[in-house]
Design brief:
407 residues, alpha/beta, Rossmann fold, Tyrosyl-Transfer RNA Synthetase, 7-stranded mixed beta sheet, two-stranded antiparallel ribbon, 9 strands, binds tryptophan, ATP-binding, Tryptophan--tRNA ligase, cytoplasmic, aminoacyl-trna synthetase, cytoplasm
Length: 407
């Protein structure tokens, strides 16, 4: 039932337990991901109320709904970033996208929407890595097609509203070299094949391109990889917002950082966005099934149809619905609302009137409301994307200093 990122390689599937790595996300018996277990296994920490309160105090604004609702739920050293920030130190943000398809769905936008909020709230610079090389190596794509997709995806990312005076977007094919490459080889030299096998599940059958890639994703965690942005700022801390399946890359990065004399990047990690309905025998979302997700290219009518067909936890007959209340854990329209509806009090009202016994709300109401909310988001995104010109893409991707990046 959980949606994986669009990778097609299946490694590390040896156990019957849940599998979460950058290439595969699948729950035990097609059920739900056990996030507590994942936190234990990975060794990250739960993002608790006290940290969220601290974000509110330090930024002087309401924490983003993805924090209030637990979409971003785990971290590594986020408390240290906040300590440093409190004492007047600054940091930079690093996130990325593997450009494997033209059409992004709402789940793909979540990390970018959240990163935009972090950039605004903390007034910090941001680097965004487009891993066209990664997708070339893992998917059946040519170099040229991966490059094209990177630029197309850059438009969607820019449409999320990033500030061009504080944001550098780069593709690996363009940017690997110089100081960036020096950090890559330093990282590579610290990681044995055995270690990489342990972290990523690589086997003797995998081509060596795959083995070389984790160092590419690690390099942007170090400010010295960007001499045009952070000259003489080798101690600048890095905070990485990402989905939790990216954790293995950064576990490796954090492991090698002290040996290179660098600080470990901090992480703030999200759960996965659920698919609209169970499709396929194990209930896992299929990336190729257009009905399993809302795409930013969907029309209002598409959204309405998809939501109407989405898996509901409500009861078919209003007497049952009234007596029992909906099973919100199984209700996809409600889950989508709880991620994207801005207003906490409206969400609470729906939770009560729809989910509790004797409630008066029917599935139809919830579906109608979530359709409105998602249609608005998708239409806003479409307008914003249409306004992104080639010149804007060039501007975000130009190698240049960002003089007012901390203002
Ligand atoms: N590997 C990621 C993907 O396929 C892309 C990525 C690169 C990334 N660097 C990152 C994601 C940093 C989050 C944070 O989507």
């Amino acid at each position: 039932m959980e949606q994986s990122l669009p990778y097609d390689n299946r490694i590390d599937s040896e156990s019957s337990d849940q599998v979460v790595n950058p290439w595969e996300v699948s729950a035990k018996d097609g059920g739900k991901i056990d996030y507590d277990k994942l936190i234990d296994k990975f060794g990250c920490k739960r993002l608790d109320e006290s940290l969220i309160d601290r974000v509110e105090r330090l930024t002087g604004r309401q924490p983003h709904k993805f924090l209030r609702r637990g979409v971003f739920f785990a971290h590594r050293d986020f408390n240290e970033i906040l300590d440093a920030y409190e004492s007047g130190e600054r940091f930079y943000l690093y996130t990325g996208r593997g450009p494997s398809s033209e059409a992004l769905h709402l789940g793909h936008l979540i990390p970018f929407m959240f990163t935009k909020y972090l950039q605004e709230a903390f007034k910090v610079p941001l680097v965004i890595q487009l891993t066209d090389d990664e997708k070339f190596m893992w998917k059946n794509l040519t170099v040229e097609e991966s490059e094209r997709l990177a630029r197309e995806n850059a438009r969607d990312i820019i449409a999320c509203g990033f500030d061009v005076t504080k944001t550098f977007i780069f593709s690996d094919f363009d940017h690997v070299g110089g100081a960036f490459y020096k950090n890559m080889v330093k990282v590579s030299k610290c990681v044995t094949l055995n270690k990489a096998k342990g972290i990523f599940g690589f086997s003797g059958e995998d081509h060596i391109g795959k083995l070389s890639f984790p160092a590419v994703q690690a390099a942007p965690s170090f400010p010295s990889s960007f001499p045009h942005l952070f000259p003489g700022m080798d101690k600048l801390r890095c905070l990485i917002p990402c989905a939790i399946d990216q954790d293995p890359y950064f576990r490796m990065t954090r492991d090698v950082a002290p040996r290179l004399g660098y600080s470990k990047p901090a992480l703030i990690e999200s759960s996965f966005f659920p698919a609209l309905q169970a499709s396929g025998e194990n209930g896992k979302m299929s990336a190729s099934d257009p009905n399993s997700a809302i795409y930013v290219t969907d029309t209002a009518k598409d959204i309405k149809n998809k939501i109407n067909k989405a898996k509901s936890g409500g009861h078919q007959f209003s007497v049952d619905q009234h007596e029992l209340g909906a099973d919100l854990e199984k209700d996809i329209p409600f889950k989508y609302l709880s991620v994207f509806l801005e207003d906490d009090s409206e969400l609470e009202l729906i939770r009560k009137q729809y989910g509790e016994k004797e409630g008066i709300m029917q599935t139809g109401h919830v579906k109608k409301r979530v359709t409105e909310v998602l249609t608005e988001i998708v239409e806003r995104h479409r307008r914003a994307r249409a306004a992104v010109t080639d010149e804007m893409v060039e501007a975000f991707m130009a190698v240049r200093p960002l003089p007012s990046m901390f203002e």
